[in-house]
Amino acid sequence: MEFFRFMTFTLRLALTEQTVSIFVIFIWKRREISELLLDMSRILTWMEKRYSLRLRRIRNVSALLAFIWIGFWLGVHVIGYITFQIQEDLSTLFGFTRQARFLSLVGAQVPAYVDDIVGGATLLINTHTELVAATFVYSIIALMITGFTHVLQDLQKVAILPSEKEQVIAVQKACRLYLRFRTLTAKFNKCFALLFAIFFSRDVWSFLVVYAVALRIDKLQGPEESQHMFEYRKKKDFDHGRHDIIVGSIGLGNAALKHLLCLYCHITVRDIVMVLEELEDKIESQDVQAEVTEMLSKIQSCSGAISAGGVHITTESAMAVLGMLASYAVIIYQTRDAALGDQEYAKKTDLPQLAEMIRGLMQNTSTSDIKF
């Protein structure tokens, strides 16, 4: 199989496997997820006493953004599927039959509209499952970011508090809130580490497929292929490629949002460490310094970082992934150059055309000999 077609075929297969994996993970981890949501609810109820208006606004905005995010990508996917996959079938909806993708193992022939409905529904289920699962976990990460942000804001106000007692109490409250969200992050990683590993593989394949489809080279016209069939195949390949770009763009959009949220969560905890270190230098009270030092001892390098199969998503890991994708991009581009070179060589040494020319010359020579 040609390399660029293999990439798109692998992405389509990976999407189906991803959908099954998401359902399996949510069923397998249902108890841990329920406990996580209960803990989140308790913490938010406790926080609501202090940040009621801000939390209500954040939840309303998060729900609206989640609805817009899912609706936008589903709309793009449906429009892309109709435009690039079944536009031609709509003009002859009941006019012909073909082998369905899911029934191809038994060779069943079904009307084209049945094939389009089954294929479209499957793609829509894959996309919807991915978007809903991703938006669900992103909403939890956004709430954890809110908690760590409140810790950071409370610590930033410590230095301007008038009395030492108030400063000690403020640091203690911030420490308790931080510990609650640190525990929540650990439970989140326990529930969704495998899911994030699957999302990560989808991110990599999305980038590679979009890049590969953008650089894909059309096959040359075959010796037994008419010009009409060649143009038809070229158009179908082009439409399928554009639809694959849409599906890959959904993955890239989720990847960008996911990494932004995960990095922001971890960076917020790093900012907490910086504020605590500044408090250690600025505040002269030994009691406050003791509380600050104790809180610093409870923050680890990976605190606040989301885990993807045991690998924490931090700035360092994100840069490593970008370097890996850049390497893959160079390899794909070199593969394209090699394929272009092969095509140019094939054009110059078109063996079927050369054989036809030799056959014609031999026939002309035989005819001339007979006349002579």
Automatic annotation (TrEMBL):
The chain crosses the membrane at residues 61-84, 131-152, 191-214. Keywords: Membrane, Transmembrane, Transmembrane helix. It comes from the Eukaryota. The keyword Membrane applies. The keyword Membrane applies. This is Gustatory receptor. It comes from Ramazzottius varieornatus. The gene is RvY_04006.
